[in-house]
Amino acid sequence: MIKKINIYHHAINLNNNNMKKIILVLCIMLAFNFKAQKMEITSAVIALDKHNDLESAVKWIDIADTKINNGATLKPKFLSKFNHYKGLIYLKRYQKNIESPDSFGFLNIATNSFIEDSKVDASFSKKSASQLKNCAYFIQDRAYNDYENKNYESALEKFSLAISVNSSPSIQKVDTFNMYNASLMAYQCEKYDESAMWSKSLIELDPADERFHKRLIDAYDKMGNSDLQLEAIKTARKSVPKSKDIIFSEVNFYLASGDNELLLESLDNAVMSDPDNPILHLVLGNTYNQIGNFEKSKSSFENAISLDPKYFDAYNNLASLYLDQTIDLIEKKNALSYKQKTQFEKYKKQINSLYSKALPHLEKCLEIDSNNLSIVTALKEIYYKLDMAKKSVEMKKLQDSLTQEN
After folding, report:
1. Is the Cα dihedral 138, 139, 141, 146 positive or negative?
2. How far apart are CA 314 and CA 283, in angstroms?
3. Which member of 116, 180, 232, 254 has the greatest number of CB atoms within 10 A?
4. Contact present, 187 and 171 (Cβ < 8 Å)
5. CB-neighbour burial class of residue 270 (10 A; exposed 0-12, middle 13-18, buried 19+)
6. Burial class (CB in 10 A: 0-12, 13-18, 19+), 62
7. Distance CA 191, CA 186 (A)
8. pTM, 2 dp
9. pLDDT band at 6 (very low <50, low <70, confident <90, very high)
């Protein structure tokens, strides 16, 4: 019996010794594996920092990366160092190959590495957070390149990525600049719901910026949702009551709906709430012109001028009221036969009368903006039609001078 017990204890001792050996071997292997990874990271750092050898740095950091992806672990300190230097190496790789269309993948790797490191409070995290701002700038820059090449979908993806990077915990920036760019790109590639999403977010952040309201109104217009469009217009009118673009959006909405009564009611209310706003009188004048009410249109433009004597658009639109009336008369005059001299002179007299009425308003436009080529060209023609040859020649010289400058 005693012999059996001794044999049993002996077997247990053997098993314990074997387990100890296995554990010892595993510890040695883990220690060797950790040391190997540490060496590879160190080799990557030395290649980058001391030898400026980017190719070797990429090789060593990729070997370490493969081992980590296969289950190898690192202590927080070395994991931070790995992520930071992986980011640095791939950021430099991106900068070296920046002209290559395929290089954006390197920037993505760098960005993700810095994000991973900046999430934790480790030795390199603050440096990674700083580099992350550079990544956001480079992403934004590539988005602009895509926009200039009319690759709107790719630009949208990159602007969205820049927003995401800037909003990360380590930066915490509300990137309204790129949010607006994203809304523009979404609109350009006909993703109107996404354009509306960005625009609504922007309005929540800054309801006083008319651009954000305009983007939302236009997106709803393209989506064909008139209820949301009208709601967006009403919100915009309250938030930015003096915005000319928003007022025109409201005007165009009611014009498209064919409801002139509501259109004029809206504009009249706007004028009553802000009677000293020349923009409102200008828009009211344009609206009356669109529905064919010459006298009220003329009166509205004159009111705008009385409030702002240097209001270029008001003078220009007032001149256009008279010039628009010449179009039908010119067509009728040109359709006459050479025998219809009496009718020809009648039309000519009417046309010249309208030119004379438009003339002082165009001259005022030139006084306000002496380099406006369109006004100079119109004046040259009208002076010529009214037999004012000297002034017509003056305008011709000014026209030639402005054309050369442009």
Report:
1. positive
2. 9
3. 232
4. no
5. buried
6. middle
7. 5
8. 0.66
9. low
The pLDDT of residue 265 is above 50? yes
Q: Give the length of the chain.
A: 406
| 320: nearest Cα among 361, 363, 271 | 361
Q: Distance (Å, rounded) from C-alpha 406 to C-alpha 393?
A: 20
Residue 150 DSSP code: T
Backbone Cα Rg of the chain: 37
Q: How far is CA 23 from CA 10, 222, 290, in A?
A: 20, 68, 90
Q: Where are the alpha helices (DSSP H) in 70-124?
A: 76-96, 104-118
CA count, 13 A, side-chain hemisphere, 402: 16
pLDDT at residue number 121: 80
Question: Residue 317: exposed, middle, or buried by beta-carbon count in 10 A (0-12, 13-18, 19+)?
Answer: buried
Select from 266, 240, 241 the least CA-distant residue to 252: 266
On whether the CB atoms of residues 72 and 31 are closer than 8 A, the answer is no
pLDDT tens-digit profile of 247-261? 888 888 987 887 877
